[in-house]
């Protein structure tokens, strides 16, 4: 009995490039779904401090 074919990549590269290999779309804001609530909260506070120039560099 003849051995069976194990692997071939024939035509796959051509098929992939017919419509172009596209990069995933980059969104303006990444989703925070599933992110720790403490991280989200600290992120909001630091954004507020940056906007209002209240960063604690004063001693």
TrEMBL record:
UniProt KW keywords: Ribonucleoprotein, Ribosomal protein
Single GO biological process annotation from the record: cytoplasmic translation
Annotated GO MF terms: structural constituent of ribosome
Residue segments, region Disordered: 1-28
Identification of the protein by name: 60S ribosomal protein L29
Family, per entry: Belongs to the eukaryotic ribosomal protein eL29 family.
Key word Protein transport present: no
Cellular component aspect of the GO annotation: cytosolic large ribosomal subunit
Alphabetized InterPro entries for the sequence: Ribosomal_eL29 (IPR002673)
Species this chain originates from: Danaus plexippus plexippus
The keyword Membrane belongs to this UniProt entry's keyword annotation: no
Pfam families (alphabetical): Ribosomal_L29e
């Amino acid at each position: 009995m003849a051995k069976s074919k194990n692997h071939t990549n024939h035509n796959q590269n051509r098929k992939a490039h017919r419509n172009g290999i596209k990069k995933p779309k980059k969104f303006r804001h990444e989703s925070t779904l599933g992110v720790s609530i403490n991280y989200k909260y600290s992120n909001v506070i630091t954004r507020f401090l940056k906007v209002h120039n209240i960063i604690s560099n004063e001693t």
